[in-house]
Design brief:
This is CDP-alcohol phosphatidyltransferase. The chain is an alpha/beta fold and 598 residues long. The chain contains 23 helices and 13 strands. The protein folds into 2 domains: 178 residues, no CATH class; 284 residues, 3-Layer(aba) Sandwich (Alkaline Phosphatase, subunit A), CATH 3.40.720. Strands 5, 6, 7, 8, 9, 10, 11, 12 and 13 form a 9-stranded mixed sheet that branches. The longest helix is centred in the first third of the chain and has 35 residues.
Length: 598
């Protein structure tokens, strides 16, 4: 019985060099049928019959499958973690991990070898996943993925896609991401098993190849040889996983240290009467303009229009009796996560990740807005058209009343992510809060959203008396550009981003001209730069910040800040960390430090 005879031969122990590669491959085929010949009509029987009838095609298929498996493994090991770096020359390297994997495969018996191949494939899946996440985070947030902190951002990303492109697209994207990871895992494991089998069947030649590759790697590494501007001897895969592991460990250590840091507060025990005495009687408004970053003021594509708007607005405010000073703050976030910028500015702590945000908002660290509430001399309100669900941070910010997306009476259309145009939100703020008579002055915390990505469609300024319930924006929204046409086009995104900043700045300054009084003090700033592919490669994290008032004594209090006159800060205007603003502001307006905690 030929099959039985061949099986008996194949059951002999492996002896390197005792048979040719072809004989070993034929023996391996029989081993797969150890329990007997395939049943007639089965898939395996059809496959063997096809291979017998078409030996050349079968051989070509085997070679192609092996080549694809090798390409997948090498590609995963050499894959960069940024989109601009994905160039063909980046794959002209000798990965140390491939050499080590081949050596391990050659020395292990069959079953341990299979386990090692599966684990190796899963490791490549993890490596590919973190590299793809790094690409996305670098493209949008200007930094790599942090496994200890960033999983919390994924639901926010899904919510953003849902608000921007619709629930169906968001669901499809989430399902697609899961399917992609599972598919990568299946393909990588299949590839590593295939390669381990090939190496085992051709052990003598594979051993020589691994020895040559290892020698070449060590030589290139020792001599520092490069090709296309990079080292030939690569350990990119292991290095990437090592960086992520170190980043995770450092983040966990940082969190423990931040818990203690957040308990210390320079003004934590300052009596109410010693907080902000030089602003008593003033209506103070802190306003954040979404994604208003330094690139809007200096980038050659976006800056011309934005700078004209700032210059025009400065002149218009001057005619209305207002004066302005402007500088730069370095934001704690980039491209998104606006709440990190808001909380950093108001708390005086560097809050650059979600874990820190949760830690500080769960405590009682004094925010700048809460300092106004603590004095008892101001009513405090928040106007946040972007908030569409419960927001417990309201108490931490010290707000007596919060007006969210459902409290402003808007009946018009959404503009992509933004629930309402900034002009309407400001007019609703005037009607419901700022324009009403009260016993105390008002401290307001206003978050404007029209310049939120994807910057399509963008509202247009209408007559202030025409705003009504917002229905006037129906036609403007319908005739605007589509988010799907802008979001993937870098040039269009940059152009529309610049226009959105012009709209937001114009809305805010026109509101101030129209409704500002001798007692109004407006502080407005950006929360962060726009996403990296809009702000540009290696762009700073700086955002403009301005103080506007009619009362010159207010601006005299900050004269030693050396900020630029007007709404547009000079390139060389002072740059502070965003976390420095709270203490500088409290000090400038007469607050006395009384530390707590620490």
């Amino acid at each position: 019985m030929p099959v039985f005879t061949r099986f008996r031969q194949s059951s002999q122990p492996d002896i390197p060099g005792d048979e040719s590669g072809t004989e070993r491959e034929e023996r391996a085929e029989v081993v797969t049928a150890e329990v007997g010949a395939p049943a007639p009509g089965s898939r395996l029987a059809h496959l063997r019959a096809w291979r017998t009838r078409h030996p050349r095609a079968a051989r070509a298929l085997r070679l192609t499958t092996t080549a694809l498996a090798a390409a997948l493994v090498l590609g995963a090991l050499l894959l960069p973690n940024t989109l601009p770096a994905v160039e063909p020359d980046r794959f002209a390297r000798i990965p140390a991990e491939a050499v080590a994997g081949a050596v391990v495969t050659l020395v292990l018996p069959r079953r341990p070898r299979l386990v090692a191949a599966v684990l190796y494939g899963l490791g490549l899946t993890a490596l590919t996943t973190v590299n793809l996440l790094d690409m996305g985070f670098n493209e949008y947030l200007g930094r790599g993925f942090n496994a200890a902190l960033d999983w919390d951002l994924l639901p926010d990303a899904q919510a953003y896609v849902e608000d921007t492109l619709g629930g169906g697209v968001a669901t499809a994207a989430a399902v697609g991401a899961v399917v992609l990871v599972l598919l990568v895992a299946a393909v990588m494991v299949a590839a590593t098993i295939r390669l381990s089998d090939v190496l085992a069947r051709h052990r003598p030649r594979a051993t020589k190849g691994a020895l040559l590759a290892g020698t070449a790697w060590v030589t290139c590494s020792a001599l520092g040889l490069t090709l296309f501007g990079g080292p030939i001897a690569s350990e990119r895969g292991a290095g990437a996983l090592r960086v992520h592991a170190q980043r995770t460990v450092e983040s966990l250590r940082d969190e423990a240290a931040f818990v203690q840091e957040s308990k210390a507060d320079t003004f934590g025990n300052t009596p109410p009467g010693q907080l902000l005495p030089d602003l008593r009687g003033k209506d103070v408004i802190f306003t954040f303009i979404e994604s208003y970053g330094r690139s809007a003021v200096e980038d050659p594509i976006m800056a011309p229009g934005v700078d004209r708007t700032l210059d025009t607005s400065t002149e218009a405010l001057a005619k209305a009796g207002f004066h302005a000073r402007s500088g730069w703050l370095t934001s704690a976030t980039y491209g998104g996560s606006s709440w990190l910028g808001h909380s950093t500015t108001m708390s005086g702590l560097w809050i650059d990740n979600q874990r820190r945000y949760r830690t500080v908002t769960a405590g009682d660290h004094l925010t700048l807005t809460k300092a106004f509430q603590k004095t008892g001399a101001w009513d405090t309100v928040g106007v946040m058209p972007g908030v569409q669900k419960g927001w417990p941070e309201e108490k931490w910010y010290g707000l007596d009343k919060l007006y969210d997306a459902f409290d402003l009476g808007y009946k018009g259309p959404k503009f992509s992510w933004s629930t309402m145009p900034d002009q309407y939100a400001l007019e609703a703020f005037q009607r419901r809060v700022h324009g009403k008579k009260r016993d105390k002055p008002l401290m307001s915390f206003v978050i404007l959203t029209s310049s939120h990505q994807p910057w399509a469609p963008i509202p247009k300024t209408v007559g202030w008396d025409e705003l009504g319930d917002g229905s006037v924006f129906d036609a403007i929204q319908k005739s605007g550009k589509k988010a799907a046409d802008i979001i993937t086009d870098t040039t269009k995104s940059r152009q529309e981003y610049g226009r959105s900043i012009q709209y937001s700045v114009t809305s805010l300054t026109q509101w101030l001209e129209r409704y500002g009084t001798d007692e109004t003090v407006l502080v407005f700033l950006g929360d962060h730069q726009p996403i990296a592919r809009v702000s540009g490669d290696r762009a700073s994290r700086d955002v403009p910040v301005s103080i506007v008032a009619k009362d010159r004594e207010v601006l005299d209090k900050v004269a030693d800040w050396n900020w630029t006159e007007g709404l547009k800060p000079d390139r060389d205007a002072p740059v502070w960390k965003m976390s420095a603003f709270r203490d500088r502001f409290l000090t400038a307006f007469g607050s006395t430090p009384h530390p707590s905690g620490g």
